[in-house]
Amino acid sequence: MFSVVKSDKVNFSTFSKSYRRRFPFRLATTSFIYPDHILPNAMRLAPYLDEMELILFESKNLPDREEISDLSALQDKQGLSYNVHLPLDIFLGHPSDKTREEGIAAVHEVVTLTGRLTPSTYTLHYVCGDDCYEKNLSLWQRRIAQSTENILKMGIKPGLISVETLNYPLTWVEDIINDLGLSICLDLGHISLGGGDPLYYLDKYLEKTAIIHLYGVYQGRDHLGLDVLDEAALANWLRLLKEYPGTVSIEVFSFHHLQTSLEVLEKLWEKV
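^ that's the sequence the OP posted. Answer follows.
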């Protein structure tokens, strides 16, 4: 899950240079870089990045149609693209029929609301709680698959849904992803925190990956700037992205963490 790291000072600074079209991938960040609503964040970020990750934390607190219309106008004017992180309160593998149905309906509502933005991907959490461990795993997998099939019946293309790596092995849902033709969201921070090797995941799954969440992890804290990462390890990850055409989202939540991340990314990219 997200743990938003707040900056000590309210900062409405801008960048000294643009990073648009600097990489083979679309460079993105979150819609919470500035302490403001989504649209003002998009307006401030559009001149500098290729894409913005619209993070919708709660299914009951979505942008209204006017805000989506304004985001669409900004897209037309400045070429900013979007990806959508589906709400975190969606539990497609929950034992309760009602809870699963609410999650399916929430996905449908978000896809309908944001469709005019033509998002590059819709990132989805397959939340794993007490209902999915040990003897419950196969039942949870069955419910996840069925819920996803019901979502796909609504008309969304399977490849537009990217399943995010969370606090369990991706192999638990890999067959579902492959059987239904879904994409993957490689969250390298989640992988690191879980004791996995991001380089292994990048090497194995990059071809099916629609979006990468990239940020710093240090002493159990996540969503920090890339400056806290080991440069050699980060450089190895970046080497695999030399021809990657998807999205790399610097998933941080302050101007400071984004600025330091962009500086590190630019410096290392010139060396790999």
